[in-house]
Amino acid sequence: MNHLYQHFRKEEQSFVDQVTDWLNQVDYQYTPYLTSFLNPREQFIVEAIVGQSDAISVSFFGGTTGTERQRALIKPSYIEDVEGHYDIALCEISYPEKFSQLSHRDILGAILGTGIDRKKLGDIIQDDGRWQLFVDASLVSFLTLHVTTVGRTTVSLIEKPLKEAVPINEHWQKKNIVISSRRLDVFIAGGLRISRDQAKQLIVSGKVKLNWTSTENVSEDVNEKDIISVRGFGRLTLLSIDYRTRKDKLAVEIGTLLQK
């Protein structure tokens, strides 16, 4: 197991163990295993570990094209991928649009306020006032019964076919930059084009999240597919490390989703 651990953070080792258990289950029972919704970093870890086996494959789906949180279907390689295998439902929020405004934060709070696990909830998406969310299909009846308000707004959840999902309008911009290291402060400074001191201040003041967890560790290394959220700026991700320059710096490809 140590040969796997060396590729991931110490705090990711428990998830690595979990993925390994999933693979063993699929290998021994010859049946697919469906995960809960995974964030991009978790998807990367699953893909990296499954990729070491020729007999097992993995595919991802989050309800529609372009979703960030997706379920992984780990299966024997001879089993074909079918959309229905992912057990994902789409719910649309019905509310008085002319008199009320909803926000992602309030919707997430209302859903999690019912007591369900965050891992059972996929992306929350919206287009021109229409709000929808992807959930584990087994929870639709529960959520339609218990989610009746978002903030101070009375709402109801209505299940819709997946094909009626609104388009996802978030478009990550790719660009290539050169950085001296993968340190969090260095990466943020390069990605946002701000000074390293400014980047450090953002981190130590609690304005930065790494994979949805607050961090004040300026020297934390950024790994591939990590999502870095910077309050007031937007999000960054490390897509790939391309090569080292003659001055021993890192040429990397990053993705940015910056606030307008």
Automatic annotation (TrEMBL):
The keyword Transport does not apply. SMART domains: S4. It comes from the Bacteria. Gene3D superfamilies: 3.30.1370.160, 3.30.70.330, RNA-binding S4 domain (3.10.290.10). Residues 182-239 form the RNA-binding S4 domain. InterPro entries: Nucleotide-bd_a/b_plait_sf (IPR012677), RqcP2_N (IPR048443), RqcP2_RBD (IPR040591), S4_RNA-bd (IPR002942), S4_RNA-bd_sf (IPR036986). Keywords: RNA-binding. GO terms for molecular function: RNA binding. This is RNA-binding S4 domain-containing protein. The lineage of its organism: Bacteria, Bacillati, Bacillota, Bacilli, Lactobacillales.
